[in-house]
Design goal:
Helix content: 10-25%
Strand order of the largest sheet: 1-3-4-6-5
Length: 161
């Protein structure tokens, strides 16, 4: 297998997911630097990324959202089978640009690592639950969600059961 240490710039395709043993996984959509010379119908490249670094994992699971432009630096492994995505083990992450904040018009369920939140376009308050449905509390606004989760993890020692 060919491996290369490199930096890849791309857009986050979906909400990063927690993986086994404290890792996080996400896909980057990468477009060529010379986009003007590529056919309009040319497919984008998908790079599957994973990281076990606790700081990067925390950032991915709590702050990164779909549409964010990231620079992921690490070891790129070419897929053994053509057509499969390349895999990048990330050891450094930089947010180059953030996605626009969507305007909510109805209720939306979202996930923050091991936690779920419910956004309602009619109010700033955000109910927060564990992924298993245990009530955590009501954040005053979306910016207060990480604070509420941090308090819960300090009190419970990170137990989200």
């Amino acid at each position: 297998m060919d491996t290369t240490h490199c930096a890849v710039d791309g857009w986050v395709d979906a909400i990063p997911l927690p993986g086994p043993r404290g890792t996080a996984t996400f896909d980057l959509i990468v477009r060529p630097a010379d986009i003007d010379t590529v056919d309009d119908d040319a497919p984008d490249t998908v790079v599957t990324c994973t990281s076990g670094d606790p700081r990067i994992t925390h950032e991915l699971l709590n702050c990164v959202q779909p549409g964010d432009l990231l620079r992921a630096t690490g070891t790129l492994v070419q897929p053994p089978t053509p057509g499969e995505p390349a895999r990048l083990t990330v050891d450094a992450l930089e947010v180059l640009d953030t996605a626009l904040i969507p305007v909510l018009r109805e209720m939306v369920l979202d996930r923050y690592g091991d936690y779920c939140v419910i956004f309602d376009g009619d109010t700033d308050a955000v109910p927060v639950f564990t992924a298993r449905g245990k009530w955590i509390g009501l954040a005053d606004n979306p910016d207060a969600i990480p604070i509420l989760i941090d308090i819960h993890e300090r009190v419970t020692g990170g137990d989200t059961a």
